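Input record (one chain):
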Amino acid sequence: MNEKILKEAGLTEGEIKVYLSMLKIGPSTTGPIVESSKISKSIVYQILDKLIDKGLVSYITKDKTKYFQASNPSQIINYLDKKEIDFARTRKDVEELIVELAQIKKANKGLTAQIYTGFRGVQTAHENSYEKLNAGDEYFYIGIFPEQEEKFHLYWERDHKRRIKAGIKCRLMFNQGTETKIVKNRNNYKGCEARYMPMNIKTPAWFMGYKNTIVIGLQEAEIAIEIVNQKIADSFKSYFEEFWNKSKPFY
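The corresponding structure, as predicted from the sequence alone:
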């Protein structure tokens, strides 16, 4: 494996060792990660935090213990895109490497729940949908927070263009109090319908759903919890449809 490509992609030597080890061993506490990567225990948390910030690692807590897991290797491309650098020379090499890394990760079943933190982590939780959705498929959001920092609006501008190119549709429900220009903006994108929540219902968290996946997001804390379970996903979809049917189209 050409690890030099990952270094050119912006990962440090320590981050590469930890990330590759996590792909091989699957969800794990820090002990096996230290043993596999040969990284000192004193700095492994620091490296994990950096990978979490880059959207390349997530975690869950079970019995007061954190279990870390490598995100889909395709997130490396998304990470490069967000750095806004010219990597045309290495992109093909990175894409070929991702195929190899994906085979390593596929050998591990993984967990059914993951926690993503930070702005980039929340993006990763959303962008995982592109791994499962095909042209004509749809995702939904319910309870979108009325106030968002400008960085979120800029991100959604880019992501809607990606969604349209992929042929994916979406339905969005914003909390009451959201500026009309924001809801109007989202409705201007092809394949997207945005509405207000009915009956002045406000939610402290937003929920995203697609296929067998639900993502629960806390806007102010920049935390997203991804749950992969068909029954839970179906349950949230039923709630969404109930609210959607009680809402009114935006004019």
